[in-house]
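[SOLVED] Need 3D model of a two-part complex

Original post:
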Amino acid sequence: MRILASILFFIILFINISSKVVLSHGPTRQKVKISVTIKAKPEDVWNVIKDFEKINNWHPSISKVESDGKIRTIFYSPRNNTPITQKLESHSNEKMMYKTSISEVDIKFFPVNTYTANISVKGNDDGSSTVLWKAAFYRAFLNNDPPPELNEAAAIKAVTEFFEAGLNNLKSKLEK
Amino acid sequence: MKNFLISLWIFFFFFKTSFSSDFAYITNQLSNSVSVINLENYKVVKEIPVGSKPAGVAVTKKGKLIFISNPESKEISVIDGLKLENIKNISLGKGPLGIALTKDDKLLLVADWYDNKVRVINTNTLKLVKEISVGKSPSGIDTDLENSKFYVANRDDNTVSVVNIKTFKEERILKAGKRPFAVALSPDNKFLYVANVKSNDVSIFNTKNYKKIKTIKVGKSPYAIAFVGDGSKAFVTNQHENTISVIDTKNKENIKTLDIGEYPEGINFYNKNKEILIVNWFDSEVVVLNSQNLNIKKRIVVGEGPRGFGYFIGPNLIK
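Solution:
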């Protein structure tokens, strides 16, 4: 009986926690914006990054992608190979940009909440391209006074590292 | 001599009024400041440091006091409109977010995101006079013209509380859509519009009998609502769609969707120029839109991560 009660307790606890994730977030949305200039034509840059399902072709920290075209799960190697599930929100070959959101993530390894991001390519006058990757998200901790591993700085660090690794590698790959 | 002085005074009075201008006070959440925009020439005249992660804003009618909510430092910053300086910070609750003044400017209402209360501050003494328990994660607030009621969206309860300002009692709980964040009364106070972030719609209530009379689909993640002066149109910012929806309030229909910029949030109507001012969080700018022909007149760069949640326009007192 006691075991049953404690199981029930944990189930209730779990339901509470998991439903809270959907419901709420901290008060301050964060922003990360990283860009890189690449000596290549915008069409060529877009050709490399445009496939939502094949981000591992240019992002060096993704060990594997599982995707059905609308949803992808990337396995992010620097952080315990943690799976991050993302949804394709919009995609435009004409504007050379696509937008994603995170639908499932283990905040122990990637501490963000309500995350959306947008990657785009623009041509410059000198024939080079600028890739801009930007994201909006909240910290992972939902209540007041977050522990350091779940605060705003931790969220910004995780996203910044993810973007920088990808963009730096994209640049060296295309300028080779 | 006396007559001469009086006529001089009258002359300057009219001179001053005819050349009066207004300011918009925009909270920059990621740069912990407020940008003050002169709405005559669209120039930022000052960036005033406030508390930590400012979001909400309320301006007294005469423009003497501007209140700013800082959910991270848990305080209300008070800006003096004559000096354009932050003259005081009032510690308050666990996460003050949505704020609004009663129409007589006597009370400031502060919704607290974390402890499910609305706190009432006397704007004269700047002291806390009352705490009212409402629903979960209260956010946007609006007050009626008669200083008799205020409305607050309880985001995580999917409700709106109707609170009597005289007795400070919660009189009604209205069932909104999913995750209501902002509320706005029509200029004649006959209708209450509620923007529901998760169901991507606006619930409209009749304020006489509190019946929900219609739900209108808008864009993704509607954040805030502004009515034009005559009440014929309402504009809604759609955060996750980078658009605003235009609602025809007579037929209660969404008649147009306009691209506006990234993460539009706070929105106000500026009656003097018949403009809609939209705060774009990601682009860190305020967009000035002609409310009649819907053309964009200007984009004004402000601080980082602006929100402008509340009524942010008031008279310019410094000239």
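Edit: Residues 9-23 of chain A have pLDDT under 50 and may be disordered.
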